[in-house]
């Protein structure tokens, strides 16, 4: 059976739901087959982004969750396990961390004989071939050539062509590598391994300034179908595809899609696929939702029968594919294969699983020390900490300072030009918001700012652009940005994730596409479906962006604006909808503009101006959560809308965000300033203890239930539950509050397992609860010393007499007109507000 026939059989069997092991033996031996059998291991690194060292240049500390020095240990051990192996890299090497910036900014490669530190390391590891990633083009083709010249292994790419040439590849589309291998009997053979590479066609958009007029790009799948037959004609026994591309659609083929690995797996002829770009790991739990679907098998690491791996990012994992080749009638056939991904650290504990490779440490020591000196260069000071832990759910200081710098730059740039007088807006996104792990956040303390801090604030080497668009087009840009959020169902009591997964793979939405546009005010209504997906395709006729105002007035859809942005975003259809909207193409990097802004100001106070927010969701039972680093917990205590919930097994923390909290300026039509309880109501509203109704009123005279009053006390005291309550009749949305109140002795049930949450609370019950809350707050019990003055005190239930007396003596509650207490009378929302406020 020829190789193509065997692959067709395997894929057809998988399509019928059969496991690969049921089709072919998982491990054939020469003794069983009487044929030559070769085991060949393929290894992959991808998306290293110049993380050669196990070091965080932002914090100045060792970080064993990253670094090729650690991945090298896995490479060496994986090689030692087998007789035959090959090692490949899948691109995004020369950009992405301070070491990469140091090499470029300090012109390290201009000195004769200098080799980029990534290649100093990789040459020691004997890579067999490499593929270009999209970030290889960030610094232009000349720098790419200069950097790549230091590699001692070949590079391939098949879908980048010379501009103006009809059908001439810019790079070598593939290579055929002759490799001497040893079979299971110890005999030596030579096999021909064909290696072909791919990069997203979108590099023509992302790096238009560097590439336009020099190269063009073509579709990945179309390119694979063109070259695989040629590779076979050139004698390839094994064909390895290296795609700097995410998984992509499992449903339909979209020509020129950014992520196409799944579609490549449907192309006849691939024996193995190595992919990357999306900063995920395959096979792993990153793809758990797809396991067993669309012919994706995580147990064998195959997609449509093709052994496939993706090696994480920054050196976090080593991708491994084990192929078995059998020689039949003089031809080598790939008869079996499976994949795995080996991590360099324990994801639950963060502990390293390997020791760094000392040879690489020594080789890059000079560049490592140079990078540390480079990032320590001072640029200014900040009067407040800069952190990005909540940048996807709140207007954020790390985004604000970038927008402030860009806006200031463009306003100066246009002085004396025909553009002067146009209002300037600025767009920026949270670049460090956890896409690359729990350490991928900005956290800069108050005090001195250095280059390493500005690199944390702006991690990409973009250049400044400004686009001229009208108000309606600005809104469409914001609509796309608002695709970051899941649609919220206000009718459900279950907790809902507000923010989509931080990945470019659908249905995710990467944080670097969540543009905040400053210079306007606007709200995002997440109860509406998203208008656009991450790729910018319109998927609904809905509108999430509401209440857009410029200078305090509703935005004029026809008014022209200049929007400061970067070259990456300026090439998008939202920033450049007509194709000629870009009016400023500055040579200055956004990061340098930020550095200059800080230096010019000397000391900055980067407070977010709150120009965007969520449209309020007034239903109190809606619980919204998002994921961030557990390091944000210290700042959550200072953010009234953010509550830390728990740290999960993968190291990320779960937080709740409150979209119902009213702003201090809130005003209820039914609570005028002269209303008897207005001060207490507005004070509690400002602190998020009590809320109004969706119709804008407060309902001060409305009754409230036992569970509602328990919730008010819990919020006022800042209580959280540690266990579970015994009450079976409390709705899930109130369980946390009632449990916390019960655990701290503030409430009791009407029986062992019933709380009667929906019963109206009467005044003697309110007295009992608020006195217990006072005792909790005070730390000791209160013994009443006097008698009650109320004429109806004999109506107070015996069990509540002490509590009512204590509430009166502590001035927590007073009587009603007529010298009465009205113990059985139901309490109003206004009364509840005054009672809770008196606890202060």
Q: Taking all residues together, what is the mean pLDDT?
A: 91
Distance between the termini: 83 Å
Q: Give the biggest beta sheet.
A: 8 strands, mixed
Assembly state (oligomeric): single chain
- In terms of DSSP E residues, the strand content is 15-25%
Question: Helix share of residues?
Answer: 25-40%
Tally of individual helices: 25
Find the structural class using helix and strand composition: alpha/beta
Basic shape: elongated
- C-alpha-based Rg, rounded: 32 Å
Low-confidence stretches: 1-26
Count of distinct strands? 36
Task: Give a brief outline of the structure.
The chain has 840 residues and is an alpha/beta fold. The chain has 25 helices and 36 strands. Strands 8, 9, 11, 12, 13, 14, 15 and 16 form an 8-stranded mixed sheet that branches. A 6-stranded mixed sheet has the order 6-5-4-1-17-18. A 5-stranded mixed sheet has the order 26-21-30-24-31.
Explain what this protein looks like in three dimensions.
The protein is of the alpha/beta class and 840 residues long. The protein contains 25 helices and 36 strands. The strands form 9 sheets. Strands 8, 9, 11, 12, 13, 14, 15 and 16 form an 8-stranded mixed sheet that branches. The chain has a 6-stranded mixed sheet with strand order 6-5-4-1-17-18. Helix 23 crosses helix 24. The longest helix has 17 residues. It is elongated and about 105 Å long. 48% of the residues are buried. The N terminus is likely disordered.
């Amino acid at each position: 059976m020829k190789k193509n026939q065997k692959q067709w059989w395997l894929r057809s069997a998988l399509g019928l739901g059969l496991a690969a092991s049921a089709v072919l033996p998982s491990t054939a031996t020469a003794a069983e087959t009487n044929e030559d059998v070769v085991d060949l291991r393929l290894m992959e690194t991808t998306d290293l982004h110049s993380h050669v060292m196990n070091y965080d240049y932002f914090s100045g500390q060792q970080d064993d969750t990253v670094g090729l020095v650690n991945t090298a240990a896995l490479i060496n051990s994986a090689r030692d396990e087998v007789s035959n192996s090959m090692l490949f890299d899948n691109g995004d090497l020369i950009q992405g961390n301070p070491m990469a910036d140091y090499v470029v900014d300090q012109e390290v490669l201009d000195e004769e004989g200098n080799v980029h530190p990534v290649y100093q390391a990789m040459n020691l590891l004997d890579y067999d071939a490499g593929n270009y990633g999209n970030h290889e083009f960030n610094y232009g083709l000349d720098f790419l050539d200069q950097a790549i010249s230091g590699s001692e292994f070949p590079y391939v790419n098949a879908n980048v062509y010379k501009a103006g040439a009809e059908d001439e590849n810019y790079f070598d589309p593939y290579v055929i590598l002759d490799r001497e291998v040893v079979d299971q009997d110890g005999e030596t053979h030579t096999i021909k391994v064909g290696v072909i590479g791919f990069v997203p066609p979108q590099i023509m958009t992302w790096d238009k300034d560097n590439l336009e007029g020099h190269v063009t790009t073509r579709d990945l799948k179309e390119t694979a179908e063109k070259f695989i037959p040629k590779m076979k004609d050139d004698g390839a026994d094994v064909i390895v595809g290296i795609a700097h591309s995410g998984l992509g659609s499992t449903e339909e083929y979209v020509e020129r899609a950014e992520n196409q690995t799944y579609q490549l797996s449907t192309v006849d002829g691939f024996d193995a696929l190595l992919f990357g770009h999306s900063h995920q790991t395959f096979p792993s739990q990153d793809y758990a939702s797809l396991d067993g679907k669309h012919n994706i098998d995580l147990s064998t690491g195959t997609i449509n029968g093709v052994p496939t791996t993706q090696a994480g990012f920054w050196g976090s994992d080593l991708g491994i594919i084990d192929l078995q080749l059998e020689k039949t009638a003089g031809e080598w056939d790939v008869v079996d294969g499976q994949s795995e991904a080996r991590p360099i650290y324990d994801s639950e504990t963060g502990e390293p699983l390997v020791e760094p490779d000392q040879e690489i440490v020594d080789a890059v020591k000079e560049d490592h020390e140079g990078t540390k000196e480079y990032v320590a260069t001072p640029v200014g000071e900040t009067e407040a900490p800069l952190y990005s832990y909540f940048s996807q759910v709140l207007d954020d200081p790390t985004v604000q300072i970038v927008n402030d710098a860009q806006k200031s730059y463009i306003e100066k740039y246009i002085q004396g030009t025909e553009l002067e007088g146009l209002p300037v807006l600025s767009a920026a996104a949270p670049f460090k918001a956890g896409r690359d792990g729990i350490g991928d956040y900005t956290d800069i303390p108050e005090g001195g700012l250095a280059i390493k801090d500005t690199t944390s604030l702006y991690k990409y080497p973009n250049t400044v652009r400004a686009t001229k668009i009208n108000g309606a087009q600005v809104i469409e840009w914001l609509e796309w940005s608002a695709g970051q959020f899941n649609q919220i169902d206000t009718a459900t009591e279950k907790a809902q994730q507000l923010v989509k997964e931080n990945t470019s793979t659908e249905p995710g939405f990467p944080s670097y596409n969540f543009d905040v546009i400053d210079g306007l005010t606007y709200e995002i209504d997440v109860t509406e479906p998203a208008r656009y997906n991450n790729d910018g395709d319109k998927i609904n006729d809905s509108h999430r962006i509401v209440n857009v105002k410029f200078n305090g007035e509703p935005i004029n859809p026809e008014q022209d604006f200049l929007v400061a942005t970067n070259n990456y975003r300026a090439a998008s259809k939202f920033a450049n909808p007509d194709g000629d909207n870009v009016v400023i193409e500055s040579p200055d990097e956004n990061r340098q503009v930020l550095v200059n802004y800080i230096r010019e100001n000397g000391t900055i106070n980067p407070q977010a101006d709150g120009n965007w927010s969520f449209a309020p969701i007034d239903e109190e039972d809606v619980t919204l959560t998002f994921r961030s680093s557990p390091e944000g917990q210290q700042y959550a205590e200072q953010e009234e809308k953010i509550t830390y919930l728990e740290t999960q097994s993968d190291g990320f923390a779960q937080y709740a965000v409150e979209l119902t909290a009213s702003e201090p300026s809130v005003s209820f039509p039914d609570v005028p300033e002269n209303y008897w309880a207005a001060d207490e109501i507005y004070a509690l509203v400002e602190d998020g203890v009590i809320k109004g109704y969706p119709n804008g009123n407060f309902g001060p005279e409305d009754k409230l239930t036992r569970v509602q009053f328990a919730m008010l006390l819990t919020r006022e005291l800042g209580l959280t539950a540690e266990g579970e309550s015994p009450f079976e009749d409390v709705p899930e949305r109130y369980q946390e509050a009632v449990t916390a109140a019960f655990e701290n002795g503030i409430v009791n049930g009407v029986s062992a397992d019933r709380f009667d949450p929906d019963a109206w609370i009467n005044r003697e019950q309110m007295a009992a609860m608020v006195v217990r809350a006072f005792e909790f707050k005070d730390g000791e019990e209160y013994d009443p010393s006097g008698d009650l003055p109320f004429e109806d005190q004999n109506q107070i239930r015996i069990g509540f007499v002490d509590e009512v007396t204590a509430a009166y003596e502590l001035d927590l509650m007073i009587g009603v007109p007529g010298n009465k207490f009205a113990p059985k009378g139901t309490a109003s929302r206004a009364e509840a507000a005054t009672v809770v406020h008196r606890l202060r």
